Amino acid sequence: MESATVSARGDRPILGRSPLSRLPDQILKWGLTAIAALILFLIGFFFVRLYIEAHPAFARFGVFGFTFDNNWDVAKNVYGALPLVVGTLVTSAVALLIGVPVAIAAALYVTELCPRGLKGPLTILLDLLAAVPSVVYGLWGVLVLVPRLKPIEQWFTDTFSFVPFIGGAHVAGPNYFIGGLILAIMILPIVSAITREVMATVPPDHKEAALALGATRWEMIRMAILPYSRAGITGAAMLGLGRAIGETIAVTLVVGNAPNIGKHLFDQGYTLAAVIANEFGEAASNPVHRAALIAAGLVLFVLTLVVNAIARFFVIRGQRGRRDIGNVAVTG
Amino acid sequence: MSTSILPVVSARRKRTDKAGRTMLGAATIVALIPLVLVLWYVIKRGISAISWHFISTDPTGNFLGDPGGIKSAFLGTIEMVLVATLISVPLGVGVALYLTEYGKNSAFARAVRYFVDVMTGVPSIVFGLFIYIVLILSGFGGSGYAGWKGSVALALLMLPIITRASEVVLLLVPDSLREAALALGAPRWRVVFRVVLPTALSGLITGILLAVARAAGETAPLLFTAAVVNGTSFNLNDKMNSLPVQIFTDVGQAQDRLVARAWGAALTLVLLVLVLTLIARLVARRSRVA
Fold it and tell me: Could you say which of B98, B165, B270 has the minimum Cβ distance to residue A136?
């Protein structure tokens, strides 16, 4: 104990390291810190550059006018993004309505009901849904799903012709609904994975107490599992929503790409992400058009930012302190 | 004592229970139908397109006749993803190391963690826009589209994935190992390189491979950074083709011969991604921690 403070030649402790041998340590520490700081810088830079490049569009149409005017006309060089915002919201809403219940049910089945031997394979298969590239879903969607589902959609809209927005449409091949359906498939694995993680945190005591009181499995699910994991499931759904809003290529291929607000669920539409993918190539020569598309990207960015912030809040609350869960969102 | 003293579960509750369980099972099957259908169609339509000619020729760009194969797209994807991996792995693992070894729960580390999460939520097309603005509009490193610019866009996409996955794995390395090494007199950097990283290696590789699989399938960040081109090039300063972009442009043309090539390219891409995912899972199974 004393030896640590006794000096060899009166200048440094005998067990201390020479300044030179401490150099790699310092380099590692500050190098890693610099890399971490780079992330913060990158995000800031990201936002500022997007805003600067989008500014001509905002200056010309106003931030509010750009976002909420129903007028996207490349030929007239006028850009109001409301049709795109509406398209993004409609397709995402359809995706949530279809995808989230299925994802939660699948998560419940895997965690609570399925035979032990099936659990692993089912988990892998559900995760594999996330491994299929977006463009492949789009390819399948436009070449298989669109023609196959058209008669079914037409029958559906004729049968429910009295329902506003759904009924009485003349079904277009690619449309909002198909876009939403493809998105539902794409958000399913992530919502299901996070829901599974959240359900795994339900204390066994709660489940056993319910069963001991004579509850059936179904009643146990309803009374013990669902209430406990409600916040986490909400967060999972919001993360799915964030994915759905930002998804580009698959939606571009199946949503129809018509820059006006469809009157029906089965009409053609457009989304913020799809318009960028489609029009950016030709916009390079027209500064206003280019600024408008970058502005669309900025709106998209802000939208996903808000949705993801809300999602994290719920997921973290659902986790009650455990914080290694964002990882599932990534690998899923 | 032949009769049970517990009250019998009423028929109605039994029915509800049965119906509820059946519904959950059915939903699980419904969830897996798209996977089966997509794979079935990709294999069925893709396999007839694949031949040696398909793999070994560049797209011709002819308006009629032989459209050519996917050589440039396949090689372009491999090359760009490889470069993106070289960029994003040191940065991604570096940030994760900072968070677990130095930052821990400091305010700065929490901010970094939060913004890494923010980055995972950024739509991939927005990364494409950003790289277009920073590297192409400004004329940095040559004014046009280039393979390396596509790689940077993919690297941005992979960075948060790798960081999040690595941090979880590094946290699993027991502190007792670090303490043992430090107690033996090893300096911090040796502890990191000789103890922490090797222990977590298989987990790190799993995370990296999953990020690679994700990047290989991305179209949006490449559309206006690396562009689409027919010829094969190994020069990262040239425009570079990739499988997803090739599929996207082929479908857009709506010609049977191009659509056939799109299916073939899709099968190639799906195989590539599935193999990567499979390897990632196998590596994860051999993991030393957790």
Answer: B270
pLDDT for the residue numbered B37: 96
> CA angle A51-A56-A58, nearest 5°?
70
Counted residue by residue, chain A has a size of 332
Give the H/E segment covering residue A55. helix A23-61
Q: In chain B, which residues have pLDDT < 70?
A: 1-7, 288-290
Domain that holds residue B180: 70-261+268-285
pLDDT lower than 50: segments of chain A: 1-8, 321-332
Which residues 57-96 in chain A show a CB within 8 A of chain B?
Answer: none
In a domain, B251, yes or no: yes
Contacts of B168 in chain A (CB under 8 A): 324, 327
We report the CATH number of the domain holding residue B131 as 1.10.3720.10
Q: Are B99 and B109 in contact (CB under 8 A)?
A: yes
As a whole number of angstroms, the distance between CA B9 and CA A214 comes to: 8
Q: Which amino acid is at A109?
A: Y
A2 touches chain B (CB under 8 A): no
Domain for residue B187, yes or no?
Answer: yes
pLDDT of amino acid B285: 80
> Residue B202 falls within a domain, yes or no?
yes
HSE-CB for A183 with a 13 A CA cutoff: 37
pLDDT (tens digit per residue) in A158-194: 888 888 888 777 888 899 999 999 999 999 999 999 9
Domains of chain A plus CATH, in order, are 76-331 (1.10.3720.10)
Among B72, B67, B40, which residue's Cα sits nearest to residue B56?
B72
Nearest chain A Cα to B109, which residue? A36
How many domains is chain B partitioned into structurally?
Answer: 1
Structure tokens at A291: 């600024």
Global confidence as pTM: 0.90
Do A113 and B25 touch, CB atoms closer than 8 A? yes
Assess contact for B273 and B217: CB atoms under 8 A.
Answer: yes
What's the CA gap between B69 and B67, in Å, rounded?
7
Chain A CB contacts of B163 under 8 Å are 39
- Report chain A residues whose CB lies below 8 A from the CB of B164: 326-327, 329-330
- Indicate whether B88 belongs to any domain: yes
Q: Would you say B257 and A124 are in contact if contact means Cβ atoms under 8 Å apart?
A: no
Selecting from B94, B161, B248 the residue whose C-beta is nearest the C-beta of A135 gives: B248
B109 contact partners, CB below 8 Å, separation of at least 6: A36, B98, B99, B102, B103
Rounded distance between C-alpha atoms, residue A257 and residue A172, angstroms: 11
Residues of chain A neighbouring B119 (CB-CB closer than 8 A):
39, 42-43
The structure tokens listed for B114 are 């939060």
CA distances from A120 to A115, A124, B71, B227 (A): 10, 6, 37, 40
DSSP letters, B139-201, are: -TTSSS--HHHHHHHHHHHHHHHHHHHHHHHHHHS-HHHHHHHHHTT--HHHIIIIIIHHHHH
Q: Do residues B155 and B84 touch, judged by C-beta distance below 8 A?
A: yes
* Residue B235 C-alpha, separation from nearest chain A C-alpha, in angstroms: 23
User: For A104-166, what is the HEC assignment?
Assistant: HHHHHHHHHHCCHHHHHHHHHHHHHHHHCCHHHHHHHHHHHHHHHHHHHHHHHHHHCCCCCCC
| Contact (Cβ atoms closer than 8 angstroms) between residue A252 and residue A273 | yes
pLDDT value at residue B1:
45
One-letter amino acid at B84 equals A
